[in-house]
Description:
- The complex is a heterodimer.
- Chain A contains 6 helices and 14 strands.
- By secondary structure, chain A is α/β, with parallel strands linked by helices.
- In chain A, the strands form 3 sheets. Chain A has an 8-stranded parallel beta sheet.
- In chain A, helix 4 links the parallel strand 4 and strand 5.
- Chain B is α/β, with parallel strands linked by helices.
- Chain B has 5 helices and 15 strands.
- Chain B has a 10-stranded mixed beta sheet with strand order 4-3-2-1-5-8-12-13-14-15.
- The longest helix of chain B has 13 residues, at 3-15.
- Chain B is globular, with a radius of gyration of 17 Å.
- Classes of the chains: A alpha/beta, B alpha/beta.
- Chain A binds chain B through residues 25-29, 51-52, 55, 74-79, 84, 87-88, 96, 98-104, 106-107, 118-126, 156, 166-176, 203, and chain B through 48-52, 65-69, 71-73, 78, 84-88, 90-91, 94-95, 122, 125-133, 136-137, 162-167.
Amino acid sequence: MDKTLSINEAVKLVKNGATVMVGGFLGCGGPNKIMDALSESDVKDLCVIANDTSFENLGLGKLIVEKKVKKVIASHIGTNKETGRQMSEEETEVILVPQGTLAEQVRAGGAGLGGVLTPTGVGTVVEEGKQKIEIDGKTFLLEKPLRADIAIIKGSVVDKKGNVFYDGTTKNFNPLMALAADVVIVETEKLVEVGEIDPNLVMTPGVLVHHIVCTGGNE
Amino acid sequence: MDSKQAKTIIAKRVAKEFKDGDLINLGIGLPTLVANYVDHDIDVIFQSENGLVGLGGKPEEGKEDMEITNAGGQPVTIKSGGMFFDSAYSFSLIRGGHVAATVLGALQVDEEGNLANGMIPGVMVPGMGGAMDLVTGANRVIIAMTHTAKGKQKILKRCKLPLTAPKQVDLIVTEMGVMEVTDKGILLTEINPEYTVEDVQEATEAKLIISDNLKNMEI
């Protein structure tokens, strides 16, 4: 089964109004080439779930600048002024979530859990509208799982079955999101033959990956 | 005292709070400076919540690896014995009580140990990132900040800005002194000899309790 797609073919899989998880942390480990192409496409009204909205000129940040997004669920938007402007002028809905909570919501979505109980956010604005549950005398918030129609992630090295190795701090939300969406697209600069990645280093198994976009010339 | 001198004093004093083998998370800005003053005889391991423990110094110019970054998106290095991980693991370390201390700045902190360091509604709403999880989960929360902001008091009877977390602050270190948050209020335990107790009280809205063993600030 050939999983490889061109960037343009990958972009066409993202439908108007889709919920899209995007890996990366301030662009590190982000599928920045696919984001570039998506920001130049006709897609609109996306709901994006990501750690942050990157910088205005990098990856997911451009998607915000090009107004492809109507809703953002993220832990931090401070590095992209355009997200803040769209939020304060109510052009884009922004839901801010503590980073550890967001990671657990995505993990729960991918792991078949009904949610997680976290102490983070108790006694702050984050608790508004959420169920509080006491366990052994300690108060927790029930945070519901998150899933997406499509997850777009980045791998440092990917083999032709879609097995992914993430170098350094590029892991962040990528392996969590690979479990939490109906369709998973991985961008990589380095596509290798099956068997070239040590199984000990594979962090996302190829069975989870539907499509591979290679942006390097190493195919 | 200029701002640079003040920040150096604060960073040097905070560094004395760490013990051999501690896992520490430093916030962005002034808290980052603390790493420069840790005693060379002890082994302190720094975490960066985007996905590593064993945070090292800045890479040499020209040797930056954009797949090894810190929580501000800047290229960093990892020390031998370090490890990379994903965001769910990173926040398991944080919420799970494995981080000995987090050092953060503050907009406001109060005599109950409540902390506001994330937003000013209508003015600055960047998102909490990992701060809420860190303040909730770290074993000790150390606030490293200048005592006032342009003459405005920051150590208050009650925080007025939205909270990052209630009742989590353990220690406040400023250029004027060191204060512990206790059940009875804020206890001044060390004072910078350049100031009098009256000076410190005047710069503080909360009523300070003066320790019977008030010492000169160890710098």
